[in-house]
Amino acid sequence: MNKQKRIAAIHDISCVGRCSLTVALPILSAAGFDTSVLPTAILSTHTGGFEGFTYRDLTEDIKPISNHWQSLNLHFDALYSGFLGSFEQIDLVADLFDTFKSPDTLIMVDPVMADNGVLYSIYSPEMAKGMTKLCAKADIIVPNLTEAAFLLEEEYVGEDYTQDYIETTLKKLSALGSDKVVLSGVSFESNKVGAAAYDSITGRVSYAFNDKIDGYFHGTGDVFGSALLSALLNNFPLAEATKIAVDYTHMCIFLTQKAEQEKRYGVCFEKAIPYLIKQLGLLNQ
C-alpha cells in the first residue's frame, strides 16, 4: 500500500453553514488523505445569508502553529489555502508555503474573496490585490470569474463573455505565477455550467460542464476546490480532475435541491461523498 498523503488545509472555520474547513476536511479525508488544518478565522456562521455573525481573526496563531509544525519536521504532499482572515495573513501563508514547500508538494490557492461581482464583506480591494502574491507561489489557482477580475484588476464582465475571453483570462491568471489555472463558474449555454482549465506547460485548455441548477448555493466553491485537489492527488490529469470536481459539485447541488434543504446552510455534500469516492476509483482500494 502506498504511503498516505498529507495535506495542510488553510481555511476559516464557519461553525454553521457548510463551507471552508467544514467542507474541505471531510471531503479530503474521505478521498484518502491525512488532512491537517490551520484555521485562519472562526465565524459563528458563514457570511452569506446570515446577519449578526461573530468573527474571530486568528492571524496571531498562524506563525506559532507553523513553527511547531516545522519543529516536527512535517512533510506535506499538498498545501491548500482558501479564505484568509486578514491582509497580514497573506504574507504569513506565503511564508508557510516557503517553509513547507518541497519538490513533491503541490500548492493550490483558492483566492476566496468574492462572488457575483462583489467582494465579501470583510475583504478590501487592497487585500484582493495582495492575493496575487499568494497566487504567484501556487502550482494551481482556482478562482471564480469575480475573483479573476479582482486578481487581474479588470472590470467584472458578468455573464457577457466569449470563449476567447475565458481563454485569455486563463493565460493572464497563469502569468501571475502558477502553471495551472482552473476557472470556475464558466458557462456558454444557459442550461450548462462548469469550469475551464489551463495548463501553461502543455498549452492545453479544457472545459468541463454539467447541467445548471437554478439558484445560488453557498459553499460550492469549497466543494469544487476540495474535490479538484482530491482528484489531482489521486493522480488524475488536470482535465479529468476538473471534470470530476464539476460533476461532484453538480451532484451536491442536485441532492440539496431534491431534499428541499434551506440553501443558506450550504449543499448536502455529505450525501454525495459515495459518488465522489466512486469517481476517484477508491471503492476497491
Q: How would you portray this structure in words?
A:
It is a single chain. The protein has nine helices and eleven strands. With 285 residues, the chain is an alpha/beta fold. The strands form two sheets. The chain has a nine-stranded mixed beta sheet, with helices on both faces. A two-stranded antiparallel ribbon has the order 6-7. Helix 1 runs parallel beside helix 7, helix 2 packs parallel to helix 3 and helix 4 crosses helix 5. The longest helix has 21 residues. The radius of gyration is 18 Å and the shape is globular.
Layout of helices and strands, plus pairs?
Layout: E1 6-16, H1 21-30, E2 34-45, E3 55-57, H2 59-71, E4 78-81, H3 88-100, E5 106-109, E6 114-115, E7 118-119, H4 125-135, E8 140-141, H5 145-152, H6 163-174, E9 180-186, E10 192-199, E11 204-211, H7 220-233, H8 238-258, H9 273-279
Parallel strand pairs: 1-2, 1-4, 4-5, 5-8, 8-9
Antiparallel strand pairs: 2-3, 6-7, 9-10, 10-11
Helix pairs in contact: 1-7, 2-3, 3-4, 4-5, 7-8
Provide the residue-averaged pLDDT: 94
Specify the number of helices. 9
Query: What spatial form do the alpha-carbon principal axes imply?
Result: globular
CATH class: Alpha Beta
Distance between the termini: 9 Å
CATH topology category name: UDP-N-acetylmuramoyl-L-alanine:D-glutamate ligase
Order of helices and strands: EHEEHEHEEEHEHHEEEHHH
Gyration radius from CA atoms, angstroms: 18 Å
Low-confidence segments, ≥5 residues, pLDDT <50?
A: none
Tell me the number of structural domains. Answer: 1
Largest β-sheet summary: 9 strands, mixed
CATH superfamily: Ribokinase
* Major β-sheet strand ordering: 3-2-1-4-5-8-9-10-11
Instruction: Specify the helix fraction band.
Output: 25-40%
**How many beta strands in the DSSP annotation?**
11
Structural class: alpha/beta
Give the amount of beta strand, in percent: 15-25%
GO molecular function, one term: ATP binding
Enzyme class: transferase
EC number: 2.7.1.35
Keywords: ATP-binding, Kinase, Nucleotide-binding, Transferase
